[in-house]
Recover the amino acids of this structure.
């Protein structure tokens, strides 16, 4: 339970509603900042403005998945007024307050570091990334189906990277009957790909591998699908780049060659906002409870 713990939310989208619900369910004191246009009202939550007076009593501050931009602006689909989290706001947080977000830009990191406030980036955590890989894979499959005229079953598919997303994706494609090759660089990844019944290849061999690829899914956040690689692909190859912006594809050259290359960020929030919100809600609520236990407060 989060009884007596003050949790404030600044902005967000449909995913944040699941986190708010969970915190109310666990009996936290919930303050909503930047939810002026939210139609459904949460019994047990209070809407407040973004002021020091509101922030000074907060134990946990929850920002949206993308945190702030590099000028401190926080996106909120529930608020038409701009919300800007400034250094003066960070300065009035209690020293034990923990700030949670999906991924923080350098602006937020610097601001909080200066005030010695703990920042937790949820998407960095293995458990969140692994759960999140489920809606990500569903979204990637949806994009593949929408952008090809062949079945996934029987198609020549390449997955780049055997991280948390790459592994779930490769496994799902295999289960759908695709011929899956996975490009990685570590020997232990090669062994795992082999163990999964898939075909491993070293990333240095990417150029010859793409010569008969129907679909290439990239999960590596580095430029791996270079112009030299794209030059070897058949024109009908579809590239779906899941890696965080700017992705790992030379999109300019792909367009020049007439090869369809799609950057697909934020799939969990697009295809399954409720599930994506519940994933965040479960982890955040557990972390806040742990945080209060560490301070020796009864829960
Ligand atoms: P991850 O577990 O860290 O996996 C990343 C993979 O990329 C690993 O296999 C890693 O291999 C490889 N890699 C990293 N740098 C490399 C380099 N320079 N050369 C070769 N391989 C390299 O990350 P993840 O959780 O799977 O996420 C992958 C990407 O997808 C991230 O950019 C993440 O932000 C993004 N993502 C997007 C969505 C979406 O909706 N589009 C959803 C979730 C995640 P090593 O272990 O050898 O480094």
């Amino acid at each position: 339970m989060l009884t007596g713990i003050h949790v404030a939310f600044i902005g967000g989208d449909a995913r944040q509603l699941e986190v708010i619900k969970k915190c109310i369910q666990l009996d936290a004191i919930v303050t909503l900042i930047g939810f002026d246009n939210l139609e459904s009202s949460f019994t047990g939550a209070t809407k407040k403005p973004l002021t020091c007076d509101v922030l000074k009593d907060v134990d946990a501050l929850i920002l949206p998945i993308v945190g702030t931009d590099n000028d401190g602006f926080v996106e909120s689909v529930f608020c038409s007024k701009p919300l800007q989290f400034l250094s003066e706001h960070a300065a009035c947080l209690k020293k034990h307050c923990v700030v949670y977000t999906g991924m923080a830009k350098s602006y937020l990191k610097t601001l909080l570091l200066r005030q010695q406030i703990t920042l937790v980036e949820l998407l960095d955590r293995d458990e969140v990334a692994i759960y999140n890989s489920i809606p990500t894979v569903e979204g990637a499959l949806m994009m593949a189906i929408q952008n090809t005229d062949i079945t996934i079953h029987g198609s020549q598919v390449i997955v780049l990277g055997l991280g948390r997303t790459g592994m779930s994706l490769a496994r799902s494609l295999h289960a759908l009957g695709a011929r899956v090759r996975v490009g990685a660089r570590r020997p232990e990844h090669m062994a795992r790909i082999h163990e999964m019944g898939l075909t491993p290849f070293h990333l240095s061999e990417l150029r010859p591998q793409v010569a008969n690829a129907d679909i290439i899914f990239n999960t590596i956040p580095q430029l791996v699908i270079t112009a030299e690689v794209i030059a070897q692909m058949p024109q009908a190859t579809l590239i779906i780049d899941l890696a965080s912006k700017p992705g790992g594809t030379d999109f300019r050259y792909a367009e020049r060659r007439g090869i369809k290359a799609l950057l697909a960020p934020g799939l969990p929030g697009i295809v399954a906002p409720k599930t994506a919100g519940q994933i965040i809600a479960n982890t955040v609520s557990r972390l806040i409870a742990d945080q209060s236990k560490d301070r020796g407060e009864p829960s």
User: Anything to note?
Assistant: Residues 129, 132, 136, 161-166, 184-186, 203, 219-222, 242-244, 264-268 surround NAP (CB under 6 Å). The longest strand covers residues 179-184. The radius of gyration is 22 Å.
